[in-house]
Amino acid sequence: MLAEKRLKVCEKGHTFYKSTDCPSCPTCDQENKPSSGFLSKLSSPARNALLHAGIDRLEKLSTYTEKDIVKMHGIGPASLPIMRSSLEEEGLSFK
Asked: How far apart are CA 91 and CA 68, in angstroms?
């Protein structure tokens, strides 16, 4: 059974449909997407999850275990390899 999508409006006035209570606006997410760095390689939900946790640099990411990161809402299975690779490129790793 598919969840019914509801019309939502973000604080900037963009309209979009979502079937969840997630307040994330696709238009705002695209506008705020970084053009470089490891966050630019991640999906919007994964990027938002990390930013919500205050993780905006690889050095901060390296203080977490993979298990900690996977528990965050918005982090999917495709995100971990990207994060792991980005950390390795800088000589870092998960805790």
From this structure: 20
**How many Cβ atoms from other residues are within 10 Å of residue 20's Cβ?**
9
Check if the beta carbon of residue 28 is closer than 8 Å to that of residue 15.
no
d(CA 65, CA 53) in angstroms, rounded, equals 14
Task: Give me the residue spans of the domains in the chain.
Answer: 1-32, 35-95
pLDDT of residue 77: 86
Which pTM was predicted?
Answer: 0.74
Task: Please return the burial class of 42, using the count of CB atoms within 10 Å of its CB with bins 0-12, 13-18 and 19+.
Answer: buried
Produce one character per residue of 48-71: b if its CB has 16 or more CB atoms within 10 Å, e if not.
bbbeebebeebeebbebeeeebee
Superfamily of 35-95 according to CATH: 5' to 3' exonuclease, C-terminal subdomain (1.10.150.20)
